[in-house]
C-alpha cells in the first residue's frame, strides 16, 4: 500500500507541479502525518522536492524552478540569521570574501561589521545592504538582472575573477542529499556557486536543517568541496 501511495504522490505532484501537504492528505484520504513521512521518504529518494509545507516535482531540464528571493527571506529566517552569525569569526580585516545571492548570505551581510574587507557578490540585495558601509569595498558581478532571484548573471565573470583572490566563499544551496551532493534549483545561481567553489581558497556552506537530505535540479558540487558546513541541524 505504501509503495502504491508513493507512486500516486509522485504522479499527483507531476500533474500539478506543486501541492501542499494538506492537498495531498485530502486527495489520498490519509493523515497529514502520513503524507509528511511519505514526502520525507520520496525526497530522500530524489523523486520530489519539499519546500515550506509543500512538495513540487523535479524538472531536471529547467533553469527557473526556485522560489523567489522574497519568499526565501521569510522561510526559516531565525535559523538563517543564527547560522549567518556563526560565520562571523571566519571573517577578518584584509580578507576578500564572496557571497552568493542566497537569503542566508543576505542575513550575513546585515551582520557584517564595517571593517576593511572586500566583498564580491552577484546579489542585488547584498549590494544594497553593504552600500551604506564606508570601509567595506564592494564589488558586484554585474550583468543581466534576474529579478526573481535578485541576482546578476554575467557571462564574463571568469575574466572578472582573474583580478580577484577570493579568501573565503560563503554560500547556501537548495539541498544536500544523503551522498553529500550539493544541489541548487536554477542555473543562474548554480553556475556562480560552482565557479566560486573552485576559485576560492576556502568555502563554507551555510544551510538550515530543512535542506538536509534534499535534492533539487542542478548539482553544484559535493560536501567534500567545502571546509565546513554550518547548520542548525543539532539545534
Task: Report what the structure shows.
This protein is of the alpha/beta class and 235 residues long. It folds into two domains: 2-57, Orthogonal Bundle (Arc Repressor Mutant, subunit A), CATH 1.10.10; 69-230, 3-Layer(aba) Sandwich (Rossmann fold), CATH 3.40.50. It is 37% helix and 22% strand. The chain is built from nine helices and 14 strands. It has helices at 2-16, 21-28, 32-44, 69-74, 77-87, 103-111, 124-130, 157-161, 187-199; strands spanning 18-20, 48-51, 54-57, 96-99, 118-121, 137-140, 144-146, 151-153, 168-171, 175-176, 181-184, 202-206, 218-222, 228-230. The strands form four sheets. It has a six-stranded parallel beta sheet, sandwiched between helices. Strands 1-3-2 form a three-stranded antiparallel beta sheet. Strand 7 (144-146) and strand 8 (151-153) form a beta hairpin. Helix 5 (77-87) packs across helix 6 (103-111) and helix 6 (103-111) packs parallel to helix 7. The longest helix is centred in the N-terminal third of the chain and has 15 residues, at 2-16. The relative contact order is 0.14.
Amino acid at each position: 500500500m505504501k509503495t502504491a501511495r508513493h507512486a500516486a504522490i509522485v504522479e499527483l505532484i507531476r500533474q500539478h507541479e506543486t501541492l501542499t501537504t494538506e492537498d495531498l492528505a485530502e486527495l489520498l484520504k490519509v493523515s497529514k502525518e502520513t503524507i509528511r513521512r511519505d514526502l520525507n521518504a520520496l525526497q530522500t529518494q530524489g523523486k520530489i522536492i519539499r519546500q515550506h509545507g509543500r512538495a513540487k516535482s523535479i524538472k531536471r531540464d529547467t533553469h527557473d524552478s526556485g522560489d523567489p528571493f522574497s519568499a526565501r527571506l521569510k522561510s526559516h529566517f531565525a535559523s538563517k540569521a543564527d547560522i549567518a552569525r556563526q560565520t562571523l569569526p571566519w571573517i577578518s580585516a584584509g580578507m576578500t570574501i564572496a557571497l552568493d545571492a542566497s537569503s542566508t548570505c543576505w542575513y550575513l551581510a546585515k551582520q557584517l561589521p564595517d571593517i576593511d574587507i572586500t566583498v564580491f557578490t552577484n546579489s542585488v540585495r547584498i549590494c544594497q545592504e553593504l552600500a551604506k558601509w564606508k570601509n567595506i569595498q564592494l564589488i558586484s558581478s554585474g550583468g543581466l538582472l534576474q529579478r526573481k532571484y535578485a541576482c546578476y548573471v554575467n557571462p564574463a565573470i571568469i575574466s572578472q575573477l582573474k583580478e580577484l583572490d577570493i579568501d573565503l566563499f560563503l554560500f547556501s544551496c537548495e539541498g544536500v542529499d544523503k551522498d553529500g551532493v550539493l544541489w541548487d534549483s536554477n542555473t543562474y545561481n548554480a553556475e556562480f556557486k560552482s565557479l566560486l567553489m573552485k576559485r576560492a581558497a576556502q568555502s563554507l556552506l551555510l544551510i538550515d536543517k530543512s535542506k538536509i537530505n534534499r535534492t533539487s535540479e542542478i548539482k553544484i558540487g559535493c560536501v567534500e568541496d567545502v571546509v565546513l558546513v554550518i547548520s542548525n541541524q543539532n539545534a
